[in-house]
Amino acid sequence: MTAGLWCFLFTLLLAHRGSAHFLDARCSSRNVNNSWDTPWMAVIASPTRNCSGMLIYNQHVITSASCVSDPRDSTVWLGNVDNLMGPQRRGVKYSIQTVYTHKLYNKQYFEYDIAILVLDGPVIYQKSILPICISLDKTKKFENLKAIRWGLYAESIFPRTNTVIILKVRQCRQSFGITIQKSQICAGFKNSRNCREPGSPLVQEMTVSKQIWNTLIGIQSGGSMQTCIYNKISNYIDWIVGIVLSVDIIVPTNSSHFVNL
């Protein structure tokens, strides 16, 4: 991280309390006086596959790099998304302007499987559309974890929540034949639910200033029946902040293309 970016983050953390610990101070707390528990969930739809994603800033959605093969063929849905196929589908639709993928992305080992999608216009926040919190504190312990997913194989979709436990490295090695790295999390559902929804989030309920916040901990890359591999968000804070806030990077002017950073 450059001195300029360190200075920016330090100033941001000292400026306010509470939600200023997060990338977007307007991110979603739990029970914000409305019925939407997951207003940050996004669907990334393409002709070949659908994936999950999360709104993290007013024009940025984060997902796994494996979820976006061609941004020209993909769209992002936010809000009250319940049906992507029928004529009565709801939600707010966005095109993708730019895709940032991590330059070290390794499909074979699920490493650095992370991407940020820049939407074609700013998102208007409302009760059903709010960003998920990304903590700027990298030292938080993993507690009270839950996996959120759409269940995209069903005709109608709605967020589903599963309790998650951290698994030993050995279990991931048995499931995938690889040894996960420090930048990854091996986790599993407590039931027999299918763990195969790339881009879906691992979420922690974090207490800050006596309020509970939905905080993004990981993004799912690989999955088997009950075993998931997530890329740990705390490992990418500098990368995410640099793209979202245009700090110490050159933002491309051409639209609808990939940028490896």
From TrEMBL:
Record GO biological process: proteolysis
One annotated GO molecular function: serine-type endopeptidase activity
Signal sequence region: 1-20
InterPro entries: CLIP_Serine_Protease, Peptidase_S1_PA, Peptidase_S1_PA_chymotrypsin, Trypsin_dom
SMART domains to which the protein is assigned, alphabetical: Tryp_SPc
Xref: Gene3D superfamilies: Trypsin-like serine proteases
Keywords for the protein's UniProt record, in alphabetical order: Disulfide bond, Signal
Pfam family, one: Trypsin
Keyword Signal set for record: yes
Peptidase S1 domain ranges (all copies): 39-245
PANTHER family: GH08193P-RELATED, PTHR24260
Protein known as: Peptidase S1 domain-containing protein
Annotated organism of origin: Drosophila yakuba
